[in-house]
Amino acid sequence: DTAVSQTPKYLVTQMGNDKSIKCEQNLGHDTMYWYKQDSKKFLKIMFSYNNKELIINETVPNRFSPKSPDKAHLNLHINSLELGDSAVYFCASSQEGGVLADTQYFGPGTRLTVL
Amino acid sequence: AQKVTQAQTEISVVEKEDVTLDCVYETRDTTYYLFWYKQPPSGELVFLIRRNSFDEQNEISGRYSWNFQKSTSSFNFTITASQVVDSAVYFCALSGGVNRDDKIIFGKGTRLHILP
């Protein structure tokens, strides 16, 4: 039933490791996003994909790489994790991105803790 | 550049009081969209409302109401007869609505505490 789902919900790992967060939406939306929410609750977009095409690529370290195998999935892979990567990562989806600024629906978030 | 300012970092009110959360935005676009999201202590982000720049009608949904005023670039949110379950962080957000790469800019949020 969940519209936008993310796995895992919690991720605790050591510095230097590589990890992935998966996101799936069953809303039939064409656009998906990754956001980072820091410890002060500030939400910032990282990437967006429309029908598997990268549309928004904000200034993030290239250790972060999104992958969209199909329009219902957008995964986030992070290489060589650093302490500063600790945050909550939200996936979101919308029917159309940008044009008409369709409402974005968010997943439950993945709390990443890097030790 | 687009910007959203939520000047109230934290607000505490006693249950049943009315409370207004302020949101002021900046944009050069003539077509834009405004949003409010709620983030309860459980952490998820819940969509509340979306408004486009051509629709200045105020909106009411139960105890929630929104006042959009282009003249002051504000999109304020009022909760009437607040309840403890309204305790959350509330985000106001702004997006252009013309280009594929228009993105939502979020304010820093207002943390609302409803005291029993």
Folded structure, characterized:
The complex is a heterodimer of chains A (115) and B (116). Chain A is mainly beta. Chain A has no helices and eleven strands. Chain A is globular, with a radius of gyration of 13 Å. In chain A, 34% of the residues are buried. By secondary structure, chain B is mainly beta. Chain B is globular. Chain A binds chain B through residues 40-45, 48, 50, 55-56, 58, 88, 90, 92, 97-101, 103-109, 111, and chain B through 32-33, 35, 37, 39, 43-45, 47, 50, 52, 89, 91, 95-104, 106, 108-109, 111.
Write the layout of secondary structure elements.
The complex is a heterodimer of chains A (115) and B (116).
Chain A: E1 4-7, E2 10-13, E3 19-25, E4 31-37, E5 43-50, E6 53-57, E7 64-70, E8 73-78, E9 87-94, E10 105-106, E11 110-114
Parallel strand pairs in A: 2-11
Antiparallel strand pairs in A: 1-3, 3-8, 4-5, 4-9, 5-6, 7-8, 9-10, 9-11
Chain B: E1 3-5, E2 10-14, E3 19-21, E4 24-26, E5 32-39, E6 46-52, E7 59-61, E8 64-69, E9 74-79, E10 88-96, E11 104-106, E12 110-115
Parallel strand pairs in B: 2-12
Antiparallel strand pairs in B: 1-4, 3-9, 5-6, 5-10, 7-8, 8-9, 10-11, 10-12
Please state the CA-atom Rg of chain B, rounded to the nearest Å.
Answer: 14 Å
Tell me what portion of residues of chain B adopts beta-strand conformation. over 45%
The helix/strand series of chain A, from N terminus to C terminus, equals: EEEEEEEEEEE
Approximately how much helix is present in the residues of chain B?
A: under 10%
Give a quick account of the main beta sheet of chain A: strands, pairing sense, barrel closure: 7 strands, mixed
